[in-house]
Fold each of these.
Amino acid sequence: MSWRDSERRRRAFRVMVKARVEAERRLGLTARGKRRLARLRPTKLSWLASVYGSDKGVTAHQYVDLYEQILAPHRREYTRVLEIGIYKGASILMWREFFPNAEIFGLDIESVEVPGPRITTLQGDQSAPDTIERLRALGPFDLIVDDGSHKAEHILASFAGLYDSVKPGGWYVIEDMQTAYAEKGYNGGPPGHPDTAASLVKSLVDAVNRDEIAPYYPDAAAALPRVAEMHVHPRVTFIRRGGT
Ligand SMILES: C[S@@+](CC[C@H](N)C(=O)[O-])C[C@H]1O[C@@H](n2cnc3c(N)ncnc32)[C@H](O)[C@@H]1O
């Protein structure tokens, strides 16, 4: 295994990032200071995650390298990005830097303000039909990220209501899929448990093969969403919308 892919490199990187985050905390950077620091490497998501303190970074969930690999080639073309789950706004700020031409929308059940240009925050429950209607009116989106409650029924309701608000070729991402296996608090269960994010992703394997199913079962094919491809990784799934 090369040094680039080694666990030793990842460990060393984590130690460096932790030290830098701690140094920045001690410096007590203002929002303006963070923005200045972010601009030093606006294309590097692991850098932006640590500057803004997002748990998508290498010190926690480690999603940033995947996001970068998949989204970086077209990041300048993105004009509308929605994230469900704002918390303190770290990832919203990270996306704003990474997608320099996009309006960034954030939804949270709590009232959260993230001031600044190109950012709009909304309050609402991700599973409520009226919230979904409000979000649909803001689309279509190049990217939708579900990092909200992580409850099975909420993930399914958001996906059912919002997936066709993703532009063809755009991405719908479901984070923290491990909650599909957690009964307490998330209504998940063992593998095979129905109505979880994992069962949704499994059913989308048929959707990826929609055109192949059509000659045999046209009605079944027509009922499937348009999915061009999926990347299933530990804890996170990337779904690219098909169609034209
Ligand atoms: C993991 S945090 C989001 C972190 C943020 N995306 C980041 O990376 O910095 C999850 C957020 O989802 C919000 N949330 C919980 N239930 C929700 C719901 N039903 N609808 C919308 N947001 C919800 C919580 O208030 C919390 O702020």
Note: The longest helix spans residues 7-27.
Amino acid sequence: MKHVTEFRDPVAARAVLSRIAETTEAIGATREKPLHIMEICGGHTHAIFRYGLDKLVHDGIEFIHGPGCPVCVLPMARVDECVEIAERPEVIMTTFGDAMRVPGTRKSLMQAKAAGADIRMVYSPLDALELARRNPGREVVFFGLGFETTTPSTALAIQQAAREGLANFSVFCNHITVPEPIRALLDDPHMVLDGFIGPGHVSMVIGTHAYDFIARDCGKPIVVAGFEPLDLLQALLMVLEQIRDGRAAVENQYARVVPEHGNPASLAAIADVYERRPSFEWRGLGEIDASGLRIRPAYAAFDAEEKFGIGYAAGPRSVPEPEGCACGQVMTGRIKPTACPQFGTGCTPEMPLGALMVSSEGACAAYWQYGGARAAEPA
Ligand code: SF4
């Protein structure tokens, strides 16, 4: 625990907070005219609220919560398609726990399971492979979901299935990439963003150069950060120092984990198994060019969309968000979760309307878990 304790040291945190305050004042930001700093990753959103960093930093800093929660940005149509596959009698659907309660149009995977579908929670795609080996008479499908962090492990499972000739294993691929939605946000003239805290785990795979366009083309600073309080405070300070000095660069606060050029073995597995979809629908952001991955034709036997003639293989499908749901506005940083009219009333962790309330990286779940629930109570 010693290593973690150092990253939570209150004396060091107070020193960084005081430098954050000085730098914010040097920039001239105030509560009325704050700097908008987007933390892209949902894991960072939770860390900020868990440690109360939003309350500790200078009033002139406003954290904007980005779209970096893969469960939250999954459009309803993909949940519906996953449920459709899971309801086939021959199928064992496997998924990470986070995805179980994400609402679809008709039902979530949890509700489909309660109604009799064979849906099992796994901790790794390799667990799904093992199920396929043990159940040769069934079709085992893995709900492949996530950013570049989880994309390699799904790729390795597909490569292994190919090596073993495991004909009853396939992946419903919903893997997506981080840089493209950031570009889409920066292209939106209504978004006012002064700098970014970059994702830690994703960057461990793709490295830091993937964000060069943010500094080079858009003139915004970005600092890749770890997940402990001092990581986040130091990264914020590094962003502010760039703004104060009139610089825009990609910097790496999380160098103890994130290599500049990423992880070559993971990148090779990704390149071997996947190719870019022309576009992919994101909840709240719409279609974004080249932001989703699909399984290459060489591995088509392991592609659930091809196997079951569903999803993009059957033509793109889009369904509207539920009435009154403000997930899109929250995910693009336009409003805070507590400004959603459904927060705490029509949408709670027990009865969620949107995915942001049930995902462990969702902004609404963070507000609820770390004090937002109280914020939703009538005065
Ligand atoms: S409170 Fe519920 S409906 Fe509103 S933005 Fe959050 S998840 Fe979506």
Note: The pocket of iron/sulfur cluster is lined by residues 325-327, 330, 337, 340, 342-343, 347, 353-354, 356-357, 364 (CB under 6 Å).
